[in-house]
Amino acid sequence: LEVVEEKKDEEGNLIPEEELTVNPPEVDFDALKAINDDVVGWLELEAIPSISYPIAQGEDNEYYLHRTIKKTYNFAGSVFIDSTNASDFSDCNTIIYGHNMKNQSMFGKLKLIKENEKYKASRYFWILTPEGKYRYEIFSAHVTPADGDTYTLFSGPDQQFLDYVDKMASESQIPKTEIPFTLDDKVVTLTTCTSNETQRFVVQGVRVSDR
Model-level pTM? Predict the structure, then answer.
């Protein structure tokens, strides 16, 4: 039997499930910044809570490939955003890189969103920054060429951006959502390697709430 937890308000009335508040993780950015000022945020997936890591940003996209946020060598590296992205996740499309580790650390479990249908547990992930807590809804998960359009960055919102998100949604290998995209949207692209050197696996979400 499946146990369904019921929530009640102060007056004892049942709260509809869809109105339940989802609380983001808590992060001590002062402590993280004391370790490394390159830390710009924290990522956590609701469906795969073990994907919960600080996000760094280097001067290029090589530095954190094999360095921890303490700047020590480690093959697994760090989760990091593209060096050309705005560090506050305000760009139209922010790319976050992570290694597909065989021990399933870093983005080693990201493929489970598609392969194990983890999207059914939750289509949401969190990006926390010193400025705010942002929840994103996954609208696409797919395999893409390493040099594909998925990695397009935008100088600002325009029709090209709207065409881009529509195309990314159409390429999704998990069921589509009915998210109406606008020029104000902020997209995050989580990307990792596959066993094929020419292909990458990406999970893309659009910001749906600021807390």
Answer: 0.89
Q: Burial, 137: exposed, middle or buried (Cβ in 10 Å; 0-12, 13-18, 19+)? A: middle
CA-CA-CA-CA torsion for 55, 58, 60, 62, nearest 10 degrees? Answer: -70
3-state secondary structure of 45: strand
- The predicted-structure confidence for 59-111, as pLDDT tens digits, reads as follows 999 999 999 999 999 999 999 999 999 999 999 999 999 999 999 999 999 99
Which three-class secondary structure state does DSSP give residue 149?
helix
Q: Give, as one character, the DSSP assignment of residue 112.
A: H
| Cβ(146)–Cβ(138) below 8 Å | no
The phi, psi pair for 43, rounded to 5°, reads -115, 135
What are the tokens at 72? 């020590």
Alpha-carbon distances, residue 65 vs 71, 75, 80, 98, 131 (angstroms): 11, 7, 8, 8, 26
Of 15, 199, 180, 192, which Cα lies nearest the Cα of 109?
A: 192
Angle, alpha carbons 59-104-86 (nearest 5°): 25
